[in-house]
Amino acid sequence: MELERHEYDVVVVGAGGAGLRAAIEAHESGARVAVVCKSLLGKAHTVMAEGGIAAAMANLYPEDNWRVHFRDTMRGGTMLNPWRMAQLHAQEAPDRVRELEDWGALFDRTADGLISQRDFGGHRFARLAHVGDRTGLELIRTLQQRTVALGIDVYMECTVTRLLTDDAGITGAFGYWRESGRFIAWEAPSVVLATGGIGKSYKVTSNSWEYTGDGHSLALQAGATLVNMEFVQFHPTGMVWPPSVRGILVTESVRGDGGILKNSAGNRFMFDYIPDFFRKETAESEAEADRWYDDKKNNRRPPELLPRDEVARAINSEVKAGRGTPHGGVFLDIASRRSPEYIRKRLPSMYHQFKELAEVDITSEPMEVGPTCHYVMGGVEVDPDNAAARVPGLFAAGEVAGGMHGSNRLGGNSLSDLLVFGRRAGLAAAEHALKRMGRVELADDALADAGRAALAPFEREGGENPYTVQHDLQQTMHDLVGIIRTAPEMEQALARIAALKERVANLSVEGHRQYNPGWHLALDLPHMLIVSECIARAALERQESRGGHTRDDFPASDAEWAKTNLICTPTGDGGVAVRHQPLPQMPPELAEIFEETA
Amino acid sequence: MTYDATFRVWRGDASGGELQPFTVAVNEGEVVLDVIHRLQATQAGDLAVRWNCKAGKCGSCSAEINGRPRLMCLTRMSTFGEGETVTVTPLRTFPVIRDLVTDVSYNYEKAAQIPAFTPRPREKDGSHRMQQVDVERPQEFRKCIECFLCQDTCHVIRDHEENKAAFAGPRFLIRLAELDMHPLDVVDRRNAAQEEFGLGYCNITKCCSEVCPEGIHLTDNGIIPLKERVVDRKYDPLTWLGSKIGRRRSD
């Protein structure tokens, strides 16, 4: 078998915010680092993040500090977050934002020249460092340019299909060049997974083709565990029309900057959906909500800025009750509330996106929006301090890592998560590599087996087309494990996933190995299936509703479940088992933060 | 609202290729990239194309549509008549890898050659203070999604492979302009802009600004001001005098 081979201390899989931040840190810790990414450098999904980076810098509100951010994050996640991750995240995010400026990032400014911060759902104070509504682009470009300036090796358009291990842990990774189809292997004692999420298993999603759950699946295969996989975030505001753009994200900043949600009768319906858990901190009247934008001390947040799971469920209910828009969404209106000049200044990408894709001028008309699969809270179970998975040498950061956001992620906490835990993963991966004595060896039979598995779709004749199987999986997850779930539907989903596994084992692809998207999809599909199975199994197991997991047959939250995480482990036969694990106990000095005023 | 459109898509590789005709269904509201995806799913499973966000934010799906450099995700099918043939070809300025995918490594090489951002020290309180008005000029260039359509359309390199070594292209001239305008950066790249990145090759025909999907005014706001700054340095009488005195001393 023809095989290109390389040797590194740390291989980072994924070149989004977490991957690049990990690579930078590992490099600066003295490790030899490779970044491997499926797309060109600078195209990772981070680029789509719009609103901002949550960090309690207190540039606008001196009252803000990490304790408030910690509290908001834990409450947004309905207290299911490992407290230590939420604590580190809140404490370190401001420094992670500041160092981006040292690397060239240009955030919008406050009047006295500091980094400006904007309001977002679930955050008590204006806290999101931002650049208009293209913060993700600024983040990726800054980290990309820093990576290039440091001379870190980047393997672009290269897909990892296997992690390689021996008795002592990680030994490297195997993959293929998308461009040529040729195989490549890296010897490395540390691998950092920073592969993002799983959204492509759903029909309506804000995620790109890359989000096929590769890292989740690779980790499981290597013997690591996944946590909280039942929690999938449906962002309340995706585009709904025209059909070809359904699911594309409409940033929460529209609501942070004054936009409101209305049903077809013109009612501002979010006031009907304020849960008791958030009632004390949510405005009671439209007048109070409108005053809040300018006076946060004496007024409470508009209900449009409740955490995303609450808003998504409310929109879903309005549409189901027949109060939706002509295309099955609700109206998001900023046109009647802010000047065209303000809208174009604060939301240039949204203005552009609706103009170009939907022929809607958001400065004069409302947008039509509905929920879209956006983010998976679940992921690789990691040690909060060093991002280590349960396989020595394996680390995970960013969306592929689980826990940090509990049952529901607050907007803006993703970009800060990437930076805080990307850095910690890079540091720990470098330390692990420098400690592991001697050169790691890649076993010839494991390499040969990985090569054979990758080429199998070419060997089979007359099998099914991978696009059809992908479509059927997306429909299954959309219909049966979507925003509202029931036991019979999820059981049906698991049966369908089992059938899809058989179909994937018999796929065939046309053409040859050079830049062949059909082949690439055929190799992504097993990842998508195993991740979908994890979601369905964990969701079936959790008999309550909480955060990004809503059960029609168990609509209430349950006190016992509030203390439990679900852990997915691999079974010997390629399946998934789910077990219960008690939540770590929060120390008293942190617990008392929640006894302070709401 | 569905109709059958006629598409011609270039298929081939570095050794050659041809326009392949397709008849394919088009639905209301679709863009060219939707149609390309439908071809992949139903007629040509191995049709090579780059894409990511499908929302005009990542700059991956660049191609030439009826001869014009465009993002496929932002080119609505409603801009063509139902009977009009839509021709999709790869970016001409870069070598073809396969079908609509080209080798854009030229851009990554140029990016790596640009002297890195180097900030002044932070202030005593650990912050960097900048005024909004001062960050807005370089922010315009940081909107760049690196789709490389400006590189594709630029006549300096479009049919002149020989100029690529000496010319970085509009994307990287505005990167130099951005760094030059960056309130925190302390490196002077004016000489490099002229000598190493070929600023002088640009004769400001503004084709790059016309194709930019982000609406960046590359020429007016980036390249022309950078040219002026270079000229200031080169023809500034004090700089000139300094260089003469320096030369005499070294004689």
Largest sheet of chain A: 5 strands, parallel
Biggest sheet, spatial arrangement of strands of chain B: 2-1-5-3-4
Q: Could you state the order of secondary-structure elements of chain B as H and E?
A: EEHEEEEEHHHHHHHHH
- Count structural domains of chain B: 2
Distance separating the two termini of chain B: 80 Å
From the alpha carbons, calculate the radius of gyration of chain B and give it in angstroms.
22 Å
Quaternary state reads heterodimer
CATH fold topology of the largest domain in chain B: Fumarate Reductase Iron-sulfur Protein, Chain B, domain 2
Number of strands of chain A: 20
CATH architecture of the domain at 234-374 in chain A: Alpha-Beta Complex
User: Rough shape of chain B?
Assistant: elongated
> Quick one: which chains have the greatest interface?
A-B, 65 and 60 residues
CATH superfamily (homologous) name of the largest domain in chain B = Alpha-helical ferredoxin
Protein described:
Chain A is α/β, with parallel strands linked by helices and 598 residues long. Among the domains of chain A are: 234-374, Succinate dehydrogenase/fumarate reductase flavoprotein, catalytic domain (Flavocytochrome C3, Chain A, domain 1, Alpha-Beta Complex), CATH 3.90.700; 455-582, Up-down Bundle (Methane Monooxygenase Hydroxylase, Chain G, domain 1). Helices cover 36% and strands 16% of the residues of chain A. Chain A contains 17 helices and 20 strands. Chain A has helices at residues 17-28, 66-76, 83-102, 135-149, 214-221, 253-256, 276-279, 286-292, 308-320, 340-346, 348-358, 413-435, 444-459, 466-480, 487-505, 517-541, 588-591; strands spanning 3-7, 10-13, 33-36, 53-54, 117-118, 128-129, 153-155, 158-166, 169-177, 183-187, 190-193, 226-227, 232-239, 260-262, 330-333, 367-376, 379-380, 394-396, 564-570, 576-582. In chain A, the strands form five sheets. Chain A has a five-stranded parallel sheet, covered by helices on one side. In chain A, a hairpin with a 5-residue loop joins β19 (564-570) and β20 (576-582). In chain A, α3 (83-102) packs across α12 and α14 (466-480) packs parallel to α16 (517-541). By secondary structure, chain B is α+β, with helices and mostly antiparallel strands. Chain B is built from ten helices and seven strands. Chain B has helices at 32-42, 105-113, 132-142, 149-153, 155-158, 170-181, 190-195, 207-211, 218-235, 237-250, and strands at residues 3-13, 16-26, 62-65, 68-71, 86-89, 96-98, 101-102. Chain B is elongated, with a radius of gyration of 22 Å. Classes of the chains: A alpha/beta (598), B alpha+beta (251).
